[in-house]
Amino acid sequence: MMLRIRRDDGGFALVGVLLALGAVLLLLAGVLSYALGSQNLSRHDQDWNAALSGAEAGIDDYLFHLNQDGAYWQYSATNPPPDGNQAFATWVPVPGASSDASYRYDIDTSELAVDGTVKVIATGRVGNVTRTVEASLRRRNFLDFLYFTEYETTDPANSNVYTGSGGRFSTTVAQQYCAKHYYDGRDIDGRVDFAGDTDPDYQYCFDITFIGVDNIDGPLHTNDALRIYEDPHFNGDTSTSYQPTSGDPWVCAGSPCAPVFKPGDPEYAAALTMPPSNVDLKNETDPVLGGTGCLFTGPTAIRLNSDGTMDVISPFSKVVNCTWPANPTTSMFQRYTITRFTIPSDGGVVYTQNVPSVTSDPNYTNGCPFNREAIGGTGSSNPNRTHPVGFPQRYDITPGSSGMSTTGYGCRNGDVFIQGTLNGRLTVAAENNIFLFGSTTYNAGDELLGLVANNYINVYHPVSSSDQGSSTRDGSCDGGCNLRLPGTSSTSTTPSLFNGTTPGTSGMATATGQRALRGPVFNAALLTVAHSFQVQNYTYGPPFTDYGGSAGNLSVFGAIAQQYRGAVGTFGWGTLQSGYAKAYSYDNDLTYDSPPHFLNPVASAWQVVTWAERKAAHSASES
Prior knowledge:
This protein is α/β, with parallel strands linked by helices.
């Protein structure tokens, strides 16, 4: 009996063992199933990441081809390139033995003529997974920088420095010795730069120096060498085309010399070459070349309006080629009242040319057939002007005075006098100079303004001599005095080009008693092809703080590109002596966007300016 019971207990143990073994097998099966499922999921994740890398490889490949051939943007699947590149039409393997990724791309050039961008839609494929990246490419250009300068020296044409009071040499000599880079032998103090150079007694050129009070709040590039004194702060990306074999990539103007840069700056970068002129913008006003912009002739006054229009007086203009709605629709020739144009919703170009000297040109006019009241009114010592829009203003001694010849008002010059608030996208160009008569800004949003002068962009800063009528001066002065600017009434403190806002009736401003220009603000991409952005008559007229007023700063929000560094004021003993103090900041929208048809350098590398993933443009099954 007892033996029989023990045998029964052994059967129960066997059942327990079998149950435990079954549970282990079920657990192993679950683990194996999970592992196999995770393998598929892990493989998909690997393919997903690799497909993105494949798309990026496509962007890099197209960028390489574009930098090898600047016209590569013209090729597509229907117009294949001569180099046999198949990526426009089919999948191309990503180079590398370990890679099983491939890519292809599509190109969109619809905005190339407007803002200089080419869009690349690149798709990467690995296995059954595809991912697409869309990138905008643009040439490295002047809009990439808050400051761009060809030469870090005073403009050789600046007669305030080279033949004005205290000047040593003529502008002709300055052009010979100073129109070159520091590293190409520009004459400087303490270095023998040419045969017979008598350094360190004197130098021909007057280089511009960044000093301790300077804070550059944006990216900067110079084709020249930065000249440093004390501890200026460069708060944005900084680059230079000066590359010494040893030592710092800048030049010390004295001790202390301790500039503050972002880590790794300044970097070396190839020079950007200025175009020879802004004539490409004039082509945008030629209907034969497909242009739709406005061509004005001779001195032209423009006020930008916040409703998307602009008011224009341009008495030399006969044929303007402009397709924009206008009020009134009659010819502008020898008219002295406002014509109002509606700026196209997609933007446009305005170009003001010199009066043609060829008699067969439709805009030819002989001489200066005008007898106009001066801006701000006339007086016993201020007769009417032959200038078509009434400059210089009453008591302004700018033309013909010592040190002021570069900003005089030529009757037949292609000059633009501009102010106002832009609603839209516009590029305004002048064959000669642009005068910023008052604050010139744009509304918040997608608006952008480009101002491109062949010669100077001048902040309007008229002065009178100390013996002229005190009623037009903004305070007391010695030798040169800030003039009050005309406006719409004798009580207004806002300068105005025009005496009203009615098209066909309102003309140039003649009211007096306005305040001098204080705290001007300019929102624009500024480009001067041959000279500088500067304050007109910057060495004349004391700062307004000398008599209890407040000049404020000269504020620029945008970008400044110039051949030579321009002056906006004079400093001495740590204080402002004349003109304005600077307050410049960069419009970050310019890193990926551009005013219409803004000028590019003669040649420069293409780069990615925007990058974003989008819905896949191609499926993995496509051939």
